[in-house]
Amino acid sequence: MLMHISHLYVRYGSLRALHGVSLDVNEGEILSIIGANGAGKTTLLKVISGLLRAESGDIDYHGRNISKERPDRLVQMGICMVPEGRRIFPNLSVKENLQIGAYTVGRHLRHQLLDLALHTFPKLKERLSQHAGTLSGGEQQMLAVGRALMGNPQLLLLDEPSMGLSPLITKEIFSLIRTINREKSIAMILVEQNAHMALEHSHRTYVLETGRVVMEGASDVIKCDPAVIEAYLGFEADEQPA
């Protein structure tokens, strides 16, 4: 097991966002987190990445409690995040954005990781000197994922990678995510509003509702559950396509 999260409670002022969330992440798997807006999905990723402190609970990574670690230390330990909305640096070049992702990595690895990012996203190779802000939405998402790969992650946190993208580009992004997982054995936690894509491209899934885990299991089982179909997949259980 790569990560074990136990009884995580998180509060924003008087509002409690997570209520005793517990979950496991296995080596080399894609774990998806689905749920409605406000369910606590992004909050969970922020706590794992060190951007937000939990009120209580533990996060064990490789058997070590990382609940109080700083974000930069977590990146050094191999936990890298692709934030919601991509958050690239629009006035820097594509190459400069990628290089920023490698700030915790030794020089001997940087060229190797850059080759990996450009091999994974060949469209970026054609635009290395271009300002990142002039890229299309899909290319910016590729850049955000490529920047995270430059940190040499063992665990990649993906927050809403399909946001603002067309269905065609969304399919391309998810195909690339699966390729990275399969070829590099990088574990991923995928938070995604598009439940169809999340369930189709992950190994296991947790369903969050108002800050609580209400369901967990293999993604191919979860996606056949009538309650999940009705709540998240856009059609009733008795209206499933053949």
What this model shows, in words?
There is one protein chain. This protein has 242 residues and is of the alpha/beta class. Helix content is 36%, strand content 25%. The strands form 2 sheets. The chain has a 6-stranded mixed beta sheet, sandwiched between helices. A 4-stranded antiparallel beta sheet has the order 2-1-4-5, covered by helices on one side. Helix 3 runs parallel beside helix 6 and helix 4 runs antiparallel to helix 6. The C terminus is likely disordered.
Q: Which secondary structure elements does this structure contain, and how are they paired or packed?
A:
Blueprint: E1 3-12, E2 15-25, E3 30-34, H1 41-48, E4 56-61, E5 64-65, H2 71-76, E6 79-82, H3 94-100, H4 107-120, H5 122-125, H6 137-149, E7 155-159, H7 167-184, E8 187-191, H8 195-200, E9 204-209, E10 212-218, H9 219-222, H10 226-232
Parallel strand pairs: 3-8, 3-9, 6-7, 7-8
Antiparallel strand pairs: 1-2, 1-4, 4-5, 9-10
